[in-house]
Specification:
Subcellular location: Cell membrane
Membrane topology: Multi-pass membrane protein
Largest sheet: 3 strands, antiparallel
Strand order of the largest sheet: 1-2-3
Shape: elongated
InterPro entries: AI-2E-like (IPR002549)
Radius of gyration: 48 Å
Mean pLDDT: 75
Family: Belongs to the autoinducer-2 exporter (AI-2E) (TC 2.A.86) family.
Pfam family, one: AI-2E_transport
Number of helices: 14
Length: 484
Protein backbone atom coordinates (compact mmCIF):
# COMPACT_ATOMS: atom_id res chain seq x y z
CA UNK A 1 0.00 0.00 0.00
CA UNK A 2 2.96 2.30 0.60
CA UNK A 3 4.00 2.09 -3.08
CA UNK A 4 0.61 2.93 -4.53
CA UNK A 5 1.06 6.73 -4.33
CA UNK A 6 4.42 6.41 -6.15
CA UNK A 7 2.81 4.41 -8.96
CA UNK A 8 -0.02 6.88 -9.26
CA UNK A 9 2.47 9.83 -9.34
CA UNK A 10 4.58 8.12 -12.02
CA UNK A 11 1.53 7.39 -14.17
CA UNK A 12 0.42 11.03 -13.89
CA UNK A 13 3.89 12.29 -14.89
CA UNK A 14 3.90 9.96 -17.89
CA UNK A 15 0.49 11.16 -19.02
CA UNK A 16 1.68 14.77 -18.69
CA UNK A 17 4.73 14.11 -20.86
CA UNK A 18 2.59 12.32 -23.42
CA UNK A 19 0.24 15.30 -23.55
CA UNK A 20 3.16 17.69 -24.06
CA UNK A 21 4.49 15.59 -26.95
CA UNK A 22 1.09 15.48 -28.61
CA UNK A 23 0.73 19.24 -28.18
CA UNK A 24 4.17 19.79 -29.74
CA UNK A 25 3.34 17.56 -32.72
CA UNK A 26 0.06 19.45 -33.19
CA UNK A 27 1.90 22.78 -33.19
CA UNK A 28 4.38 21.50 -35.77
CA UNK A 29 1.56 20.30 -38.01
CA UNK A 30 -0.24 23.65 -37.70
CA UNK A 31 2.99 25.53 -38.42
CA UNK A 32 3.55 23.43 -41.53
CA UNK A 33 -0.01 24.04 -42.72
CA UNK A 34 0.35 27.78 -42.07
CA UNK A 35 3.65 27.88 -43.98
CA UNK A 36 2.05 26.06 -46.90
CA UNK A 37 -0.90 28.49 -46.82
CA UNK A 38 1.47 31.47 -46.75
CA UNK A 39 3.36 30.10 -49.75
CA UNK A 40 0.06 29.70 -51.63
CA UNK A 41 -0.99 33.27 -50.75
CA UNK A 42 2.42 34.58 -51.82
CA UNK A 43 2.18 32.70 -55.11
CA UNK A 44 -1.29 34.06 -55.77
CA UNK A 45 -0.12 37.56 -54.86
CA UNK A 46 2.79 37.32 -57.32
CA UNK A 47 0.50 36.00 -60.09
CA UNK A 48 -2.91 37.73 -59.64
CA UNK A 49 -5.75 36.83 -61.99
CA UNK A 50 -6.56 39.09 -64.94
CA UNK A 51 -8.18 42.36 -63.93
CA UNK A 52 -7.38 41.97 -60.21
CA UNK A 53 -4.71 43.95 -58.42
CA UNK A 54 -2.55 42.25 -55.76
CA UNK A 55 -3.79 42.75 -52.21
CA UNK A 56 -1.94 45.38 -50.21
CA UNK A 57 0.89 44.13 -48.06
CA UNK A 58 0.10 43.83 -44.41
CA UNK A 59 2.27 45.93 -42.15
CA UNK A 60 4.47 43.90 -39.94
CA UNK A 61 3.47 43.99 -36.33
CA UNK A 62 6.19 44.72 -33.84
CA UNK A 63 7.11 41.70 -31.77
CA UNK A 64 5.63 41.45 -28.32
CA UNK A 65 8.00 41.73 -25.39
CA UNK A 66 7.47 39.21 -22.58
CA UNK A 67 9.74 39.44 -19.52
CA UNK A 68 12.22 41.59 -21.47
CA UNK A 69 12.56 39.01 -24.33
CA UNK A 70 11.08 39.80 -27.78
CA UNK A 71 8.39 37.29 -28.94
CA UNK A 72 6.82 36.93 -32.37
CA UNK A 73 3.32 35.74 -33.00
CA UNK A 74 2.88 32.07 -33.77
CA UNK A 75 1.74 31.08 -37.27
CA UNK A 76 -1.85 30.64 -36.09
CA UNK A 77 -1.71 33.81 -33.97
CA UNK A 78 -2.65 31.90 -30.83
CA UNK A 79 0.39 32.79 -28.69
CA UNK A 80 3.78 34.50 -29.04
CA UNK A 81 6.97 32.55 -29.82
CA UNK A 82 10.40 33.68 -28.51
CA UNK A 83 12.73 35.03 -31.22
CA UNK A 84 16.49 35.67 -31.24
CA UNK A 85 17.52 39.22 -30.34
CA UNK A 86 18.53 41.34 -33.34
CA UNK A 87 22.29 41.86 -33.84
CA UNK A 88 23.81 45.05 -32.51
CA UNK A 89 24.01 47.64 -35.27
CA UNK A 90 27.30 49.58 -35.68
CA UNK A 91 26.69 53.24 -36.49
CA UNK A 92 28.27 54.57 -39.66
CA UNK A 93 31.31 56.84 -39.19
CA UNK A 94 30.70 60.55 -39.55
CA UNK A 95 31.30 62.20 -42.88
CA UNK A 96 34.24 64.26 -41.64
CA UNK A 97 36.22 61.20 -40.36
CA UNK A 98 39.31 60.48 -42.57
CA UNK A 99 39.47 57.16 -44.38
CA UNK A 100 42.08 54.76 -42.92
CA UNK A 101 43.71 52.46 -45.49
CA UNK A 102 44.28 48.85 -44.55
CA UNK A 103 47.88 47.93 -43.71
CA UNK A 104 49.50 45.70 -46.37
CA UNK A 105 51.23 42.42 -45.67
CA UNK A 106 54.83 43.12 -44.51
CA UNK A 107 56.21 40.52 -46.95
CA UNK A 108 54.33 42.08 -49.84
CA UNK A 109 55.45 45.57 -48.81
CA UNK A 110 59.16 44.69 -49.29
CA UNK A 111 60.28 45.25 -52.91
CA UNK A 112 61.12 42.13 -54.91
CA UNK A 113 64.72 43.20 -55.53
CA UNK A 114 65.35 43.73 -51.82
CA UNK A 115 63.88 40.32 -51.00
CA UNK A 116 66.07 38.61 -53.60
CA UNK A 117 69.15 40.49 -52.34
CA UNK A 118 68.38 39.47 -48.74
CA UNK A 119 67.90 35.81 -49.71
CA UNK A 120 71.18 35.80 -51.64
CA UNK A 121 72.94 37.79 -48.90
CA UNK A 122 72.41 35.40 -46.03
CA UNK A 123 73.35 32.45 -48.24
CA UNK A 124 76.57 34.22 -49.22
CA UNK A 125 77.26 34.90 -45.54
CA UNK A 126 76.84 31.21 -44.72
CA UNK A 127 79.11 30.25 -47.63
CA UNK A 128 81.73 32.83 -46.58
CA UNK A 129 81.63 31.53 -43.01
CA UNK A 130 82.11 27.97 -44.23
CA UNK A 131 85.07 28.98 -46.40
CA UNK A 132 86.58 30.91 -43.48
CA UNK A 133 86.34 27.91 -41.18
CA UNK A 134 87.80 25.68 -43.91
CA UNK A 135 90.69 28.11 -44.42
CA UNK A 136 91.35 28.14 -40.66
CA UNK A 137 91.43 24.35 -40.56
CA UNK A 138 93.76 24.19 -43.56
CA UNK A 139 96.06 26.80 -42.01
CA UNK A 140 96.21 24.81 -38.78
CA UNK A 141 97.18 21.56 -40.52
CA UNK A 142 98.82 23.08 -43.59
CA UNK A 143 101.84 20.78 -43.29
CA UNK A 144 99.62 17.72 -43.66
CA UNK A 145 97.51 19.29 -46.42
CA UNK A 146 100.52 20.44 -48.46
CA UNK A 147 102.22 17.07 -48.01
CA UNK A 148 99.13 15.24 -49.25
CA UNK A 149 98.71 17.55 -52.26
CA UNK A 150 102.41 17.21 -53.10
CA UNK A 151 101.98 13.44 -52.89
CA UNK A 152 99.05 13.68 -55.30
CA UNK A 153 101.17 15.66 -57.78
CA UNK A 154 104.07 13.21 -57.51
CA UNK A 155 101.68 10.28 -57.88
CA UNK A 156 100.17 11.84 -61.01
CA UNK A 157 103.69 12.10 -62.42
CA UNK A 158 104.78 8.54 -61.48
CA UNK A 159 101.54 6.59 -61.98
CA UNK A 160 101.95 6.22 -65.79
CA UNK A 161 105.29 4.48 -65.14
CA UNK A 162 103.58 2.02 -62.78
CA UNK A 163 100.91 1.31 -65.40
CA UNK A 164 103.61 0.80 -68.08
CA UNK A 165 105.48 -1.70 -65.89
CA UNK A 166 102.22 -3.52 -65.10
CA UNK A 167 101.53 -3.90 -68.83
CA UNK A 168 105.02 -5.39 -69.22
CA UNK A 169 104.09 -8.18 -66.81
CA UNK A 170 105.50 -6.99 -63.49
CA UNK A 171 103.48 -7.47 -60.29
CA UNK A 172 101.80 -4.49 -58.76
CA UNK A 173 104.06 -4.42 -55.70
CA UNK A 174 107.28 -4.72 -57.72
CA UNK A 175 106.18 -2.08 -60.25
CA UNK A 176 105.24 0.29 -57.43
CA UNK A 177 108.53 -0.25 -55.58
CA UNK A 178 110.67 0.31 -58.69
CA UNK A 179 108.80 3.45 -59.67
CA UNK A 180 108.80 4.86 -56.14
CA UNK A 181 112.51 4.24 -55.53
CA UNK A 182 113.55 5.44 -58.98
CA UNK A 183 111.46 8.63 -58.83
CA UNK A 184 112.66 9.76 -55.41
CA UNK A 185 116.27 8.81 -56.19
CA UNK A 186 116.18 11.05 -59.27
CA UNK A 187 114.67 13.94 -57.29
CA UNK A 188 117.27 13.46 -54.55
CA UNK A 189 120.12 13.48 -57.07
CA UNK A 190 118.82 16.71 -58.60
CA UNK A 191 118.75 18.38 -55.17
CA UNK A 192 122.21 17.11 -54.33
CA UNK A 193 123.55 18.37 -57.65
CA UNK A 194 122.18 21.87 -57.02
CA UNK A 195 123.72 22.04 -53.53
CA UNK A 196 127.05 20.72 -54.83
CA UNK A 197 127.21 23.27 -57.64
CA UNK A 198 126.38 26.15 -55.29
CA UNK A 199 129.04 25.12 -52.77
CA UNK A 200 131.63 24.56 -55.50
CA UNK A 201 131.14 27.99 -57.10
CA UNK A 202 130.29 30.14 -54.08
CA UNK A 203 133.87 31.44 -53.64
CA UNK A 204 134.26 32.54 -57.25
CA UNK A 205 130.79 34.05 -57.25
CA UNK A 206 131.56 35.99 -54.05
CA UNK A 207 134.72 37.42 -55.61
CA UNK A 208 132.84 38.38 -58.77
CA UNK A 209 130.10 40.01 -56.66
CA UNK A 210 132.68 42.12 -54.82
CA UNK A 211 134.25 43.11 -58.12
CA UNK A 212 130.82 44.00 -59.50
CA UNK A 213 130.04 46.12 -56.45
CA UNK A 214 133.32 47.98 -56.90
CA UNK A 215 132.50 48.62 -60.56
CA UNK A 216 129.02 49.81 -59.57
CA UNK A 217 130.56 52.18 -57.02
CA UNK A 218 132.91 53.60 -59.64
CA UNK A 219 130.05 54.04 -62.08
CA UNK A 220 128.00 55.89 -59.48
CA UNK A 221 130.92 58.22 -58.70
CA UNK A 222 131.54 59.02 -62.36
CA UNK A 223 127.95 58.72 -63.59
CA UNK A 224 125.28 61.33 -64.13
CA UNK A 225 123.80 60.98 -60.63
CA UNK A 226 126.63 63.01 -58.98
CA UNK A 227 126.95 60.68 -55.99
CA UNK A 228 129.89 61.42 -53.71
CA UNK A 229 132.09 58.85 -51.98
CA UNK A 230 131.01 60.10 -48.55
CA UNK A 231 127.39 59.37 -49.42
CA UNK A 232 128.27 55.85 -50.52
CA UNK A 233 130.25 55.27 -47.31
CA UNK A 234 127.33 56.60 -45.27
CA UNK A 235 124.99 54.12 -46.98
CA UNK A 236 127.39 51.26 -46.19
CA UNK A 237 127.65 52.43 -42.55
CA UNK A 238 123.85 52.55 -42.25
CA UNK A 239 123.63 48.99 -43.51
CA UNK A 240 126.20 47.82 -40.96
CA UNK A 241 124.39 49.62 -38.13
CA UNK A 242 121.07 48.09 -39.23
CA UNK A 243 122.63 44.63 -39.10
CA UNK A 244 124.14 45.34 -35.66
CA UNK A 245 120.91 46.64 -34.16
CA UNK A 246 118.87 43.73 -35.53
CA UNK A 247 121.17 40.95 -34.39
CA UNK A 248 118.50 39.51 -32.12
CA UNK A 249 115.95 39.51 -34.92
CA UNK A 250 118.46 37.82 -37.23
CA UNK A 251 119.19 35.19 -34.57
CA UNK A 252 115.49 34.48 -34.07
CA UNK A 253 115.08 34.27 -37.83
CA UNK A 254 117.89 31.70 -37.86
CA UNK A 255 116.12 29.66 -35.19
CA UNK A 256 112.91 29.88 -37.19
CA UNK A 257 114.89 28.74 -40.18
CA UNK A 258 115.92 25.61 -38.26
CA UNK A 259 112.25 24.99 -37.44
CA UNK A 260 111.35 25.42 -41.10
CA UNK A 261 114.02 22.92 -42.10
CA UNK A 262 112.61 20.38 -39.64
CA UNK A 263 109.09 20.95 -40.99
CA UNK A 264 110.35 20.56 -44.56
CA UNK A 265 111.95 17.21 -43.78
CA UNK A 266 108.77 16.10 -41.98
CA UNK A 267 106.68 17.11 -44.99
CA UNK A 268 109.04 15.25 -47.35
CA UNK A 269 108.76 12.04 -45.33
CA UNK A 270 104.99 12.36 -45.12
CA UNK A 271 104.76 12.98 -48.88
CA UNK A 272 106.93 9.93 -49.62
CA UNK A 273 104.81 7.72 -47.35
CA UNK A 274 101.56 9.00 -48.92
CA UNK A 275 102.90 8.63 -52.46
CA UNK A 276 103.83 5.00 -51.85
CA UNK A 277 100.31 4.06 -50.76
CA UNK A 278 98.65 6.10 -53.48
CA UNK A 279 100.70 4.30 -56.12
CA UNK A 280 99.95 0.89 -54.64
CA UNK A 281 96.35 1.21 -53.39
CA UNK A 282 95.02 4.26 -55.20
CA UNK A 283 92.00 2.46 -56.70
CA UNK A 284 90.99 0.90 -53.38
CA UNK A 285 91.28 4.25 -51.61
CA UNK A 286 89.04 5.85 -54.24
CA UNK A 287 86.46 3.05 -53.88
CA UNK A 288 86.45 3.52 -50.10
CA UNK A 289 85.92 7.27 -50.50
CA UNK A 290 82.98 6.64 -52.84
CA UNK A 291 81.30 4.52 -50.16
CA UNK A 292 81.36 7.52 -47.82
CA UNK A 293 79.34 9.62 -50.27
CA UNK A 294 75.51 9.82 -50.05
CA UNK A 295 73.71 7.44 -52.36
CA UNK A 296 72.13 10.22 -54.41
CA UNK A 297 75.51 11.87 -55.13
CA UNK A 298 77.62 8.73 -55.51
CA UNK A 299 77.06 8.28 -59.24
CA UNK A 300 77.99 11.88 -60.05
CA UNK A 301 81.11 11.80 -57.87
CA UNK A 302 82.14 8.47 -59.42
CA UNK A 303 82.02 10.09 -62.86
CA UNK A 304 83.80 13.29 -61.78
CA UNK A 305 86.70 11.52 -60.03
CA UNK A 306 88.39 9.92 -63.08
CA UNK A 307 88.02 13.17 -65.06
CA UNK A 308 89.62 15.15 -62.24
CA UNK A 309 92.50 12.66 -62.10
CA UNK A 310 93.04 12.90 -65.87
CA UNK A 311 93.13 16.70 -65.58
CA UNK A 312 95.69 16.55 -62.75
CA UNK A 313 97.84 14.04 -64.64
CA UNK A 314 97.75 16.14 -67.81
CA UNK A 315 98.70 19.26 -65.82
CA UNK A 316 101.68 17.58 -64.12
CA UNK A 317 102.98 16.00 -67.33
CA UNK A 318 102.59 19.20 -69.32
CA UNK A 319 104.20 21.36 -66.62
CA UNK A 320 107.17 19.00 -66.30
CA UNK A 321 107.75 19.04 -70.07
CA UNK A 322 107.40 22.84 -70.33
CA UNK A 323 109.66 23.42 -67.31
CA UNK A 324 112.28 21.05 -68.70
CA UNK A 325 112.32 22.86 -72.06
CA UNK A 326 112.63 26.27 -70.33
CA UNK A 327 115.44 25.09 -68.07
CA UNK A 328 117.41 23.53 -70.95
CA UNK A 329 117.11 26.54 -73.28
CA UNK A 330 117.91 29.19 -70.65
CA UNK A 331 120.65 27.02 -69.11
CA UNK A 332 122.35 26.63 -72.48
CA UNK A 333 122.17 30.40 -72.98
CA UNK A 334 123.74 31.05 -69.56
CA UNK A 335 126.48 28.48 -70.26
CA UNK A 336 127.32 30.05 -73.63
CA UNK A 337 127.52 33.52 -72.03
CA UNK A 338 129.86 32.06 -69.36
CA UNK A 339 127.57 33.04 -66.49
CA UNK A 340 128.60 31.30 -63.25
CA UNK A 341 126.16 28.90 -61.59
CA UNK A 342 124.54 28.20 -64.97
CA UNK A 343 123.45 24.66 -64.03
CA UNK A 344 122.01 25.57 -60.58
CA UNK A 345 120.19 28.49 -62.18
CA UNK A 346 118.75 26.10 -64.78
CA UNK A 347 117.50 23.83 -61.96
CA UNK A 348 115.92 26.82 -60.20
CA UNK A 349 114.20 27.78 -63.47
CA UNK A 350 112.84 24.21 -63.74
CA UNK A 351 111.48 24.26 -60.17
CA UNK A 352 109.98 27.77 -60.36
CA UNK A 353 108.20 26.84 -63.59
CA UNK A 354 105.70 24.94 -61.44
CA UNK A 355 104.41 28.35 -60.26
CA UNK A 356 102.66 29.69 -63.38
CA UNK A 357 103.43 33.26 -64.50
CA UNK A 358 105.05 34.28 -61.22
CA UNK A 359 107.73 31.56 -61.18
CA UNK A 360 109.05 32.46 -64.63
CA UNK A 361 109.41 36.12 -63.59
CA UNK A 362 111.24 35.29 -60.35
CA UNK A 363 113.65 32.76 -61.89
CA UNK A 364 114.34 35.02 -64.87
CA UNK A 365 115.03 37.98 -62.59
CA UNK A 366 117.44 35.86 -60.53
CA UNK A 367 119.35 34.85 -63.67
CA UNK A 368 119.52 38.49 -64.82
CA UNK A 369 120.81 39.70 -61.43
CA UNK A 370 123.56 37.06 -61.34
CA UNK A 371 124.55 37.98 -64.91
CA UNK A 372 124.56 41.70 -64.09
CA UNK A 373 126.74 41.31 -60.99
CA UNK A 374 129.20 38.84 -62.49
CA UNK A 375 129.39 39.66 -66.22
CA UNK A 376 128.15 43.21 -66.64
CA UNK A 377 125.22 45.08 -68.14
CA UNK A 378 125.60 43.80 -71.71
CA UNK A 379 125.48 40.13 -70.66
CA UNK A 380 122.52 40.84 -68.38
CA UNK A 381 120.58 42.39 -71.25
CA UNK A 382 121.27 39.33 -73.43
CA UNK A 383 120.06 37.03 -70.62
CA UNK A 384 116.94 39.18 -70.24
CA UNK A 385 116.23 38.86 -73.97
CA UNK A 386 116.64 35.06 -73.77
CA UNK A 387 114.32 34.81 -70.76
CA UNK A 388 111.63 36.97 -72.41
CA UNK A 389 111.82 34.97 -75.67
CA UNK A 390 111.48 31.65 -73.81
CA UNK A 391 108.51 32.95 -71.79
CA UNK A 392 106.73 34.11 -74.95
CA UNK A 393 107.29 30.74 -76.64
CA UNK A 394 106.07 28.96 -73.50
CA UNK A 395 102.89 31.03 -73.24
CA UNK A 396 101.88 31.01 -76.92
CA UNK A 397 103.21 27.68 -78.20
CA UNK A 398 104.24 25.17 -75.52
CA UNK A 399 101.39 25.45 -73.04
CA UNK A 400 98.53 25.48 -75.62
CA UNK A 401 100.12 22.59 -77.52
CA UNK A 402 101.17 20.40 -74.58
CA UNK A 403 98.52 21.15 -71.97
CA UNK A 404 95.68 21.71 -74.45
CA UNK A 405 92.08 22.11 -73.35
CA UNK A 406 92.35 19.66 -70.45
CA UNK A 407 93.64 22.26 -67.97
CA UNK A 408 92.75 25.55 -69.65
CA UNK A 409 92.40 28.21 -66.96
CA UNK A 410 91.98 31.94 -67.52
CA UNK A 411 95.10 34.03 -66.70
CA UNK A 412 93.11 36.10 -64.18
CA UNK A 413 92.13 32.91 -62.34
CA UNK A 414 95.80 31.84 -62.39
CA UNK A 415 96.99 35.13 -60.87
CA UNK A 416 94.27 35.16 -58.18
CA UNK A 417 94.79 31.51 -57.28
CA UNK A 418 98.59 31.89 -57.02
CA UNK A 419 98.21 35.02 -54.85
CA UNK A 420 95.63 33.32 -52.60
CA UNK A 421 97.71 30.15 -52.28
CA UNK A 422 100.85 32.12 -51.38
CA UNK A 423 98.96 34.10 -48.72
CA UNK A 424 97.50 30.94 -47.18
CA UNK A 425 100.49 28.57 -47.34
CA UNK A 426 103.47 30.40 -48.82
CA UNK A 427 105.43 28.89 -51.72
CA UNK A 428 103.75 25.51 -51.32
CA UNK A 429 100.32 27.11 -51.63
CA UNK A 430 101.42 28.96 -54.78
CA UNK A 431 102.60 25.67 -56.33
CA UNK A 432 99.41 23.70 -55.66
CA UNK A 433 96.92 26.55 -56.30
CA UNK A 434 96.67 26.27 -60.10
CA UNK A 435 96.23 22.46 -60.28
CA UNK A 436 93.52 22.70 -57.62
CA UNK A 437 91.71 25.36 -59.65
CA UNK A 438 92.04 23.26 -62.82
CA UNK A 439 90.69 20.15 -61.09
CA UNK A 440 87.84 22.12 -59.50
CA UNK A 441 86.90 23.56 -62.90
CA UNK A 442 86.75 20.06 -64.39
CA UNK A 443 84.65 18.66 -61.54
CA UNK A 444 82.16 21.55 -61.54
CA UNK A 445 81.73 21.41 -65.33
CA UNK A 446 81.06 17.68 -65.25
CA UNK A 447 78.61 17.87 -62.35
CA UNK A 448 76.69 20.66 -64.10
CA UNK A 449 76.33 18.56 -67.26
CA UNK A 450 75.43 15.50 -65.19
CA UNK A 451 72.67 17.35 -63.33
CA UNK A 452 71.18 18.55 -66.62
CA UNK A 453 71.17 15.00 -67.99
CA UNK A 454 69.52 13.72 -64.82
CA UNK A 455 66.83 16.40 -65.09
CA UNK A 456 66.14 15.38 -68.69
CA UNK A 457 65.87 11.74 -67.66
CA UNK A 458 63.33 12.57 -64.96
CA UNK A 459 61.08 14.48 -67.38
CA UNK A 460 58.01 12.59 -68.67
CA UNK A 461 58.32 11.03 -72.11
CA UNK A 462 56.58 13.19 -74.77
CA UNK A 463 53.75 11.68 -76.81
CA UNK A 464 52.12 12.38 -80.16
CA UNK A 465 53.04 15.58 -81.96
CA UNK A 466 55.19 16.66 -79.01
CA UNK A 467 57.30 13.53 -79.39
CA UNK A 468 57.76 14.25 -83.10
CA UNK A 469 58.85 17.82 -82.42
CA UNK A 470 61.20 16.78 -79.60
CA UNK A 471 62.82 14.00 -81.60
CA UNK A 472 66.32 14.81 -82.98
CA UNK A 473 66.25 15.81 -86.62
CA UNK A 474 68.50 14.02 -89.07
CA UNK A 475 70.90 16.34 -90.93
CA UNK A 476 70.09 17.06 -94.56
CA UNK A 477 73.33 15.56 -95.79
CA UNK A 478 72.54 12.28 -94.08
CA UNK A 479 69.02 12.35 -95.47
CA UNK A 480 70.39 12.88 -98.97
CA UNK A 481 72.90 10.07 -98.59
CA UNK A 482 70.19 7.74 -97.26
CA UNK A 483 67.93 8.62 -100.23
CA UNK A 484 70.67 8.01 -102.77
Amino acid sequence: MSRLPQWVGGAGAGLTRLAQRLEEQRRRAEAAEAAAADQDDLRRAEDPPDGLAPPPARAAEPPAVVDGVPHAASPDGSRPVATAPPPESVPAPPAYAPAVAARPDPVAAVPWGVRVAAEAGWRLLVLAGTLWVLAKVITTIQLVVLSFIAALLITAMLQPTVAWLRHRGLARGLATALTFIGGFVVMGLVGWFVVWQVQDNIDSVAGQIQKGIAELKGWLLKGPFHVTESQINQIAKNLQDAVGHNTEAITSAGLEGVTVVIEVFTGILLSMFTTLFLLYDGRRIWTWLLKLMPGAAREGVAGAGPRAWRTLTAYVRGTVIVALIDAIVIGIGLWILDVPLALPLAVFIFLFAFIPLVGAVVSGALACVVSLVTQGVFTALIVLAIVLAVNQIEGHVLQPFILGRAVRVHPLAVILSVASGSLIAGIGGAVVAVPLVAVTNTVVSYLRKYSKEQALRMMPTPHGATALSAAPQQPRTEVAEAGS
